[in-house]
Amino acid sequence: MTVEWKAAPDARRILVIEDHADLRELLTELLNAEGYTPEACADGRSAIERLDSLDGGWCVILDLHLPHVPGIEILRELRNRAALRDVPVIVTTADPHAMRDAAELNVRLVVKPFDVDDLIAEVRRACA
Amino acid sequence: MSPPPSGRRLVWVVDDSPLDAERARRCLSSDFEVEVFPDGALALERLAAGPHPDVCVVDWMMPGVSGIELCRFVRSPTQQLSHIQLLLLTAQQETAQIVEGLVAGANDFLSKPYADAELRARVQALVRSAALMRRAEDAEGTVRQLLATSPDALLAVDAAGVVTFANPEAERAFARPLREIAGRQVSELLPMVELGQLRGAGETHLSLPDMALGENIYAPVVRVRPPGGGTYTVIALRDVTKRRRQEARRLDFYSILAHDLRSPLSAILLRGDMLMRRRGDTLPADVLSHLHKTQANVASLMAMINEFLDLARFEGMGFVLEREELDLVDLVRTTAEDLRPLAEARQVQLQVAVSGPVGVFGDRGRLGQVVANLIGNAIKFTPAKGTIVAQVAVNGHCVETSVVDDGPGIPADALPTIFERYTRAVGASVPGSGLGLMIVREIVDAHGGSVGVTSTPGHGSRFWFRLPRTEADSRSRPRELRVVNQ
What we know:
The complex is a heterodimer.
Chain A: E1 13-17, H1 21-33, E2 37-41, H2 44-51, E3 58-63, H3 71-80, E4 89-93, E5 108-111, H4 116-127
Parallel strand pairs in A: 1-2, 1-3, 3-4, 4-5
Helix pairs in contact in A: 2-3
Chain B: E1 10-14, H1 18-29, E2 33-37, H2 40-49, E3 55-59, H3 67-75, E4 85-90, H4 95-104, E5 108-111, H5 116-149, E6 153-158, E7 163-166, H6 168-174, H7 186-189, H8 195-200, E8 205-207, E9 211-213, E10 216-224, E11 232-239, H9 241-279, H10 285-315, E12 323-327, H11 328-345, E13 349-353, E14 359-363, H12 364-381, E15 387-395, E16 398-405, H13 434-446, E17 450-456, E18 460-468
Helix pairs in contact in B: 1-5, 9-10, 10-13, 11-12, 12-13
């Protein structure tokens, strides 16, 4: 499947929370190329701090396995804040069984290793 | 109670008449070790000191402590002398008196004058009863001791869900005395055990998820006796607190390790992917081919890491099944549909031969994984133009799901160990099926089912798993198969 390139699909900004440096760089690069405005966090603690400056116009790509604060805690924190309750979240995990309550927490799951098209398609759906 | 050194059983004669006592002694001494007491008081003293006789022949009419009083003393619950058999001798035979003697605790009755042979025969009969009683008491003592020393907490539950028995370990586990456990509904003690649901599942041997009681973690095992003939359920709770903590630490370690391995692999895949997408049309064909193969290898390495972590998880936390009532036929059908594109890509025909629905009580995600693994393997190992048939067949209280292929089959030497954990047949000629089948077995085991395979090299393989089904009527005839989807 190929994804048609769009100049500016959405004004949404995307926060990438990923501890693996190269994956973080890759995701940022990829989202940039797709016309989004990505920012990145390398660990759970800085991600929690970063939540304060987010609003409903953001989308979050979240790795579950993070140093300091696990991804699931960040997700709960996000859903507990009225302003961020409806922010689209894409959880990237290598473990398909990691998030049995994905529906409950209103997240989209992308199982690693993901392919570029699948991830972009998911981001587009989330930001639609 | 212990026999005298002669090995013969001890019999006491308690009679205030020296003539009668001597007659009884002579009559019995050929078969027994006989001791004579001239009055009841002396016999009472000796009862306190022991050793005790198997049988005590007691004259009713005695000055001081009478025969009937001696009987009452021996039978009083505080004395714990119930193993002594009492034969009451009386001068007359009146119903009222016999009744009074038996009520007082005598085992048998003989009126004077008696024939020697009759006294001997009656004492022998009582010695036999004493022996039987001893045996029963020994057996009961052994069972009681076993239950008391059992490292597992044990509960017996009747058909109405009432706890009828609990051993000392159960008292410790629930931190309540026996009187607060027995007689209660099991659901009050273990709200997480749905016995009705378990019985409905038609299973007799169940492993449930760990449960916490107070500070400790217990692994429950439930045996449900089939209905009829006194339905009851036995629940054994093993304290696994320490083991689970160790396992949790190990699992944490595995997950961190797996995550650390997966992140760079994901990055490699993603980079390769981007390279092919952005430069695919400018790269030389041979470079592109190398890139494709690299990607495929990294992907399979990733799959192996995931399987490894899955397996570690099964072994570890006594992994939790999220069970629900589900239609296995529907699950097989949808899983097969998910895999149909893969089958078509490999030019393998995938047939689904099911008629449904068939209810099972299981974890939808995990059972889907089992079906996907078996069909996926079949697709992987069946050459182009081959055929795979997935079937679901009800047989009694079981339902068997099987995946049959006409691929190359599996060598006989690999079959016995194909589902075994950490075992691969020496020189196994089955590539890449290592961890997947172990996971299949773990999942099916956890559902109280079984797995198996039959295979003929050159003619294909048949992998199957059986699960208990939940229909109330589990004795229906095997259902006929109907091909509904080709």
